[in-house]
Write a structure and sequence with these properties.
By secondary structure, the protein is α/β, with parallel strands linked by helices. The protein is built from six helices and five strands, in the order E-H-E-H-E-H-E-H-E-H-H. Helix 1 packs parallel to helix 5 and helix 5 packs antiparallel against helix 6. The structure holds 5-O-phosphono-beta-D-ribofuranose.
Amino acid sequence: MKKVGIVMGSDSDLPIVEKAINTLKDLGIPFEVHVYSAHRTPDEAGEFAANARKNGFGAIIAAAGMAAHLAGAIAARTTLPVIGIPCKSTNLDGVDALLSTVQMPTGIPVATVAINGAANAALICAQIFAVEDEALAKRLDEKRVLDAKKVLQKDAEIAQRYNG
Ligand code: RP5
């Protein structure tokens, strides 16, 4: 199976990114994690993106906060799917990162998830890989069933507490 590249702009993004890491682990998808910044280490970020396809990656998750140009800078250097996670930091609640990540010019797309939406970033990668991987598609189906059961369990608990 191809790997997912997970790149974050700073190790301060790791608490958010861990949800993507854990989701990929749960689904048995190989990954590699790096800290590269579009602004502080632009050469390393660019080289990682430019070589990603030949290095066995099938998709890249890029997480950054503030003026979050990492996902776009990576997308500029590869035609692999790039999923951007806008990270909440500082004073603007992540809206700064959301707009910086999502507002890409035509031709260089970044599939952007919600602010701090790291689990969904991993799931998008999984769903892309599952187009050609029946076993992974089955694991995704099973996860959906399990997640639904958890919601129904919560419904039962809340209903018992409030509905007499
Ligand atoms: C961004 O600036 C990073 O992605 C991080 O979200 C934010 C703050 O970085 P640090 O100053 O904590 O390294 O580039």
